[in-house]
Amino acid sequence: MTAAPVETDWRRLSPRMLVIHPFQEVVRAAPALIGLLFAGSGSGGEGHLWSLAGVGIMVLFGMLRWFTTTYRITAEHVQVRKGLLNRKVVTVPRDRVRTVDVTSHILHRVLGLARVEVGTGMSDRKRGGELKLDALSVAEAARLRVELLHRSPVADTPPEDIAATGVPAVVAGAPGADETELAVLRPQWIKYGPFTLSGLVAVGVIAGYLSRLASEGNVDLGQVGPVRETWRWLSAAALPLAVATVVLVLALFVGVASTIGYLLAFWNFRLTRHRGGTLHVTRGLVTTRATTVEERRLRGVEVSEPLLLRAVRGARLIAITTGLRVGQGAQRGGSMLLPPAPRAEAEAVAVRVLRGAADPSPVTVPLTTHGSAAVRRRFTRAFGVHAAVTAVLLYCWLWSDLPSWPGLTMVALLPLTALMAADRARNLGHTLASGYLVSRAGSLVRRRVVLECDGIIGWNVERSFFQRRAGLVTLTATTAAGRQGYRVQDVALAEALRIAAAGSPGLLDPFLAGGDAVPAAEGQVRR
């Protein structure tokens, strides 16, 4: 009988985190503390005392985390124990570990620390079961990453090899020895930064922070000199000039902020394949991040082309990985295999990630179009929505105080709606190639999905009222990876059944009447 683990099996975070957490708590509470300072500035120094008391409480709260947080790695589980009054133990089976992110912010790097996030699936964050260790020494974080994902002992790894590079020698070795370089950032890719529009996030963050700061400090922004003069000029200018000025200034700011954000996020980007069966992504300038994904959980890739990025022939590459949902904040960073770069480069990296799938490559294979019925449906949907919005705006203009320009603007935008509908129709396509389902759709964001058929666990066939009239259906391949379901939109029913039958041989036989391409019943088909 195996003896139970003793208490000494539990490990503590680095003592240097006693500097990190108090600082983080003070920064997080800065607007409220500044508000207390302003609110009490005229009360004989009481505001200063309350602010100092608040800082002291934040520092104490941050220091308590070191005393109340421990973790351990067993042969079957990863466990984190935390909390003082409300004690909680988070336990995750090691075979549920999908990714390991090692992040170092600027203060972490100064102190030689790193934050480790263990990705265990799409629902961990909602259930409060995410595993975060903030902070460990760089050497311990790198050792932990290898221990969790490479499934091999690392006790023999020389400490000097870990400390020198931040990752063990088995990972940091020269390309061709233990890892193969798949992609590395090139300086010319920076020109794609302004077309990512990530600077819009910076605008929102800055505006929100200033608004909260003004609210907590009881400051009227309208009375601030530059703000007052800017508003006065905009109010006196003609409406077209004012709108054009605001749009131009915002575009310039967003473009510069997006470029800076691109540099901060993707500087020193490098994608490698480790011989232990993992993909490793490192990136970051001020804040460095290293993400490791197991290849055995990789089910395909997605080449994503937002409209502005597509206009300059750019794209980004996203992994479709079991248990790692795309588009979930920090988790999305874990699924990105290539930052905005030339589309040809994204396609080449996708081929290398899929280990050069047999000819024809599913990444570049020509797609089957969806026919005239699907094209008509794109135009009728676009014009229908446009006409409804225009009618509502014109009705409000005629029967209320709404000005006429919104309705007239919608009328003027009719050609743009037609172009958008034509682009959506042109982008529709699908095929089966080399054991992969390939589908493409979208206009504002065009996505080409390459999904391994072995990773498909079921098929959904859906038809709306208007699709039935057009003789079309939407076929969804359900999977445990990425977005959980990938659609082939507006295809003929016979073609949808052919795709499902070819993608999962034998799965649909019980649902076909007499072997004909007619479903015995609409709905879901699962393995």
Description:
It is a single chain. This protein is α+β, with helices and mostly antiparallel strands and 527 residues long. 43% of the residues lie in helices and 25% in strands. The protein is built from 19 helices and 21 strands. It has a 7-stranded antiparallel sheet with strand order 7-6-5-11-10-9-8, with helices on both faces. The chain is globular. The protein starts with 10 loop residues before the first strand and ends with a strand. The relative contact order is 0.08. The N terminus is likely disordered.
Largest sheet features:
7 strands, antiparallel
Q: Count up the helices.
A: 19
Secondary-structure-based class equals alpha+beta
> What does the radius of gyration come to?
28 Å
Could you tell me the mean pLDDT? 78
Total number of strands: 21
Shape annotation:
globular
How far is the first residue's CA from the last residue's CA? Answer: 39 Å
Query: Which runs of at least 5 residues are low in confidence (pLDDT < 50)?
Result: 1-8, 122-129, 152-176, 328-332
Indicate the proportion of strand residues. Answer: 25-35%
- Roughly how much helix do the residues carry, as a percent range? 40-55%
